[in-house]
Design a protein that fits this description.
Distance between the termini: 35 Å
Largest sheet: 5 strands, parallel
Order of helices and strands: HEHEEHEHEHH
Strand content: 5-15%
Structural class: alpha/beta
Helix content: 40-55%
Radius of gyration: 18 Å
Length: 165
């Protein structure tokens, strides 16, 4: 799916659904950097022009070079849950998480920790100045219909839906 056509498809969908720039976030895996670098760079720049945020998912689990990150338009990195599972007991994982957060600060890239399940993990991540957190500590999996009910249904939308035949 990560082809040059992606930028046009997202642009078309944004117009069709009234999505404003900044409301789209595209997650990619770091393995994409191992593909055609010029093509990946062009796609990322196109997504950036649309106002889409680009996040590298599962950071630290692949084999790409850290040097790639500075050459691409990336807004955030997601630290893989594998580094968080024993964050409170593993000095090695703590060192890796600290290093990733420090590196991201230096590059002006946001940091998202995924797999936060315990308050102790959250406390450590806050002390390290991690930007965002995901995990069962905040919410379990939510069905698409429930997401729509919670976050997308507004009084104006209910009115529009009730007017449909």
């Amino acid at each position: 799916q990560f082809t040059p056509a992606l930028v046009g498809e997202i642009s078309t969908a944004m117009v069709a659904h009234g999505v404003r720039p900044g409301q789209i976030e595209v997650e990619i895996t770091e393995s994409l950097f191992m593909q055609d670098a010029a093509e990946v760079r062009a796609i990322l720049k196109g997504l950036s022009r649309l106002g889409a945020r680009v996040t590298i998912d599962d950071f630290g689990t692949g084999y790409s070079s850290l040097g790639y990150i500075r050459h691409f338009s990336v807004d955030a990195l997601k630290i893989d849950r594998a580094f968080l599972s024993d964050l409170t007991t593993s000095s090695q994982n703590l060192a890796i998480v600290r290093a990733v957060i420090t590196m991201c600060r230096g590059l002006g890239i946001g940091v998202i920790a995924e797999g936060v399940e315990r308050k102790e993990q959250l406390e450590i991540l806050r002390k390290l100045h991690c930007d965002e957190y995901q995990g069962y500590l905040f919410s379990g999996a939510v069905a698409p219909g429930e997401i729509e009910r919670r976050y997308l249904e507004t009084p104006a939308r209910r009115e529009i839906l009730s007017e449909r035949p």
